[in-house]
């Protein structure tokens, strides 16, 4: 049986994908995949997603050079979420942090919980590698 | 500024919450929260969710006893996903595995990637602790 039969894409044909650093287990980001982006992810070994805001297929790192090499793809008991282990090049977050989850709740507000690796201008101000 | 102002709940008033084991960083599950379930999670220190299939507010472990004690709540750069660190009692998965992501893609199929801790009947066949 193909594992695709275990997966449930939502009404828009999408499934959330949690991206985790295969080295230190830090959760880096969450993004959405449709079947075509998952197939391309498996075929190329680089993560590809579907942008809901831009309605566009994209490869992680296509602009920044911060690509993700896939090491493992797991899916949950309900088949409605993916967990993908990757080797991350540079910052996963477009704001220059290693992880998109760089802010934690503190009291009624929030705190920055990790150092910024790069200034966003530094990432996007020059051509993608 | 309240951190709630950084969060974007979707058209149904929901936000996905990734639940991670604070001890070993294993991603345990993903579930959905509305604002009330997030507020109750913060107030009680135990994770609460909104079930889309049952259209019902629920506390993780209310039936199984497998509760989650919250250690940290982070949110991503876009404010549309939560990452919550917890101390998990027993199996997070209703199928008796520590993590709901117990299956990984292997070739065209899948493999079980971790041992089952409990039989589901053992979890749900007796009253919740």
Describe the structure.
2 copies of one chain form a homodimer. Chain A is globular, with a radius of gyration of 15 Å. Chain A has helices spanning 35-44, 120-124; strands spanning 15-21, 27-33, 48-51, 56-59, 68-75, 82-88, 103-106, 109-112. The first copy, chain A, is 12% helix and 35% strand. Chain A has 2 helices and 8 strands, in the order ββαββββββα. In chain A, strand 1 and strand 2 form a beta hairpin. The termini of chain A are far apart. Chain A has a 4-stranded mixed beta sheet with strand order 2-1-6-5, covered by helices on one side. With 129 residues, chain A is mainly β. The interface between A and B is large, with 37 and 37 residues.
What integer value in Å does the Rg of chain A equal? 15 Å
Low-confidence stretches of chain A: none
How many runs of DSSP E, i.e. beta strands of chain A? 8
Distance between the termini of chain A: 39 Å
User: What is the average per-residue confidence, as pLDDT of chain A, rounded to a whole number?
Assistant: 94
Helix content of chain A: 10-25%
Instruction: Name the largest protein-protein interface in this structure.
Output: A-B, 37 and 37 residues
Number of helices of chain A: 2
Strand content of chain A: 25-35%
- Assembly form of the protein: homodimer
The shape of chain A, in one word, is: globular
Structural class of chain A: mainly beta
The biggest beta sheet of chain A reads:
4 strands, mixed
Strand arrangement, major sheet of chain A: 2-1-6-5
H/E element order of chain A: EEHEEEEEEH
């Amino acid at each position: 049986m193909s594992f695709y039969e275990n997966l449930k894409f939502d009404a828009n044909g999408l499934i959330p994908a949690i991206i985790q650093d295969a080295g230190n287990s830090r959760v880096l980001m969450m993004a959405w995949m449709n079947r075509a982006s998952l197939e391309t992810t498996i075929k190329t070994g680089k993560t590809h997603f579907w942008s809901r805001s831009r309605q566009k297929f994209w490869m992680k790192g296509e602009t920044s050079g911060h690509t993700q090499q896939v090491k493992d793809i797991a899916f949950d008991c309900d088949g409605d979420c993916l967990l993908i282990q990757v080797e991350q090049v540079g910052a996963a977050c477009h704001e220059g942090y290693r992880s998109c989850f760089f802010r934690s709740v503190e009291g009624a507000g929030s705190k920055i919980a990790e150092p910024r690796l790069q200034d966003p201008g530094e990432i996007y101000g020059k051509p993608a590698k």
